[in-house]
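Help wanted!
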Amino acid sequence: DSGVTQTPKHLITATGQRVTLRCSPRSGDLSVYWYQQSLDQGLQFLIQYYNGEERAKGNILERFSAQQFPDLHSELNLSSLELGDSALYFCASSGGAGAVGNQPQHFGDGTRLSIL
Amino acid sequence: AQTVTQSQPEMSVQEAETVTLSCTYDTSESNYYLFWYKQPPSRQMILVIRQEAYKQQNATENRFSVNFQKAAKSFSLKISDSQLGDTAMYFCAFMKPGEGNDMRFGAGTRLTVKP
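Answered by r_m:
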């Protein structure tokens, strides 16, 4: 158990819809990262938050947005969904208080999003 | 931009034998961190081993060890005494130092351990 919790585990919806994926980081971790893994592909970095602020941005579509709340949980919002958005979405966390930036990321179990 | 290349899409090994997975990366940074993650059929991402670039000694975790060649920008993973449970996708990842940097992943190598 990595300590990172993602909900829901599975999500099935239709094109054009909007969904929200939720992530609770490991206790004490300040950084949250979101990744997208399409079928049989590697992980693509989407966005990272540190202590409530956006810290780094990857290949995230304008239809996607995220935020990190004061309790450090994070949500990834996906809107105007397309068939190609079907993927496994991972959240990872790292960087507890006092970390010097070399902490590995610990991953949640992912949310499998299927667009019909 | 940092890139990570895993040139072996698929590999197989007999149970109890040794296998080496390759990874190369491109960066202009002098200090950074490298990781190997395992993704079994359950799709979880599990940290296998990590290496800090400023450390010359190769990291080792039980049956897993790395061969880190900084000048060649190479970071291979050796799995000794392969077990059926090692069957998984293996991803090499690169991370710059500093708080809150994202990791860049390779495309992965699918390893099958055969009985």
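OP: Thanks! One thing I noticed: The interface with chain B takes residues 2, 30-31, 33, 41-45, 48, 50, 55-56, 58, 88, 90, 92, 94-95, 99-102, 104-107, 109-110, 112 of chain A (CB under 8 Å).
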